[in-house]
Each structure stands twice: as C-alpha cells, then as structure tokens.
Amino acid sequence: MDDPKPTDVLANERTFLAYVRTALAFVAFGFVIARFALFAQEFGIVLQMHEPNRGASIVFGTVMALFGSVVGAYGGYRYVVVARDLDAHRRVRSDTKAATVGAAVVAAIGVIVGIGLIALR
User: Fold this and answer.
1) pLDDT score at 4
2) HSE (side-chain half, CA atoms, 13 Å) at 106
3) Residue-by-residue DSSP string for 67-116
4) Nearest C-alpha neighbor of 79 from the set 15, 3, 7, 4
5) Torsion-angle region of residue 12: left (phi > 0), alpha (psi -120 to 50) or beta?
6) Are 84 and 91 spatial neighbours (Cβ–Cβ below 8 Å)?
7) CB within 8 A of 64, min separation 6: which ones?
8) What pTM value is reported for the model?
9) pLDDT tens for residues 74-107?
10) In 3D, which of 61, 67, 65, 70 has the Cα closest to residue 112?
11) pLDDT in tens, 59-69
12) What does the domain layout of the chain look like in residue ranges?
C-alpha cells in the first residue's frame, strides 16, 4: 500500500493550524471582553455615566476563552482522526454536526456582542 499523498497530509496540517488560530482568537477575544469591564468603568467615571454591569463582561469573556479551549481540543482531535484515517487508507469524512454546532455558537456570540454594543449607546 502507498503512503498517504503529501497534499492530503499537508491539508490536514493546515486545517489543524486553522483550528489553533481560531482557538487563540477566541481566547484573546475572551480576555479583551473580560478586561473591557475595567475600561468601561473608567470611561463611565470620566463621563459621569451610570456604572456598567461588569459581571456580564467577565462571565462572557470567560465563556469565550473556555470556548477557545474547546475549539483547540476539537482541532487536535480532528487532526489525529484524519491522520489515522489517511495512514489506514480509509475515506475521511467531514463532521457536519460539529460544523453546524460551531456555526451556531459563533452566530450566537455575534448576536450577543452586537446586543452588547447597541446597549452601550
């Protein structure tokens, strides 16, 4: 039996690196959201506005960072599964359920961030 094609192996590695970049982006975004509460508090003092709800930013930022960890772990899992299938010359299948759930979570995050930005007006 032949070894897996280099293009397939490299595509699997590129996909894994995309998962890693996405996971890091979620973690960084979560950190920024959690720390945004401090900025909003200082901004509110300067403009003599009502004090924002700091707890919501901290919770949402923590959830975003944890979601980034889940994305990274799932990317590692998919990399290993696909590499194993390529080595065994099995057909690699896409995980449509995970893609659907991931897209729904990202859409929900977008809606929450949009609502939060509108509420700051």
Assistant:
1) 83
2) 13
3) HHHHHHHHHHHHHHHHHHHHHTTPPP---HHHHHHHHHHHHHHHHHHHHH
4) 15
5) alpha
6) no
7) 26, 27, 29, 30, 33, 109
8) 0.77
9) 999 999 999 999 999 888 888 889 889 989 988 9
10) 61
11) 888 889 999 99
12) 6-119
Give me 112's structure tokens: 């929450």
Q: Tens of pLDDT along 7-56?
A: 999 999 999 999 999 999 999 999 998 887 777 777 667 766 666 566 77
Contact 87, 50 (CB under 8 A): no
Structure tokens at 10: 């490299």
The tokens describing 99, both together, are 């893609």
Q: Determine the 3-state secondary structure of 49 from DSSP.
A: coil
Q: Residue 78 and residue 73: Cα distance in Å, rounded?
A: 9
Contact 37, 54 (CB under 8 A): yes
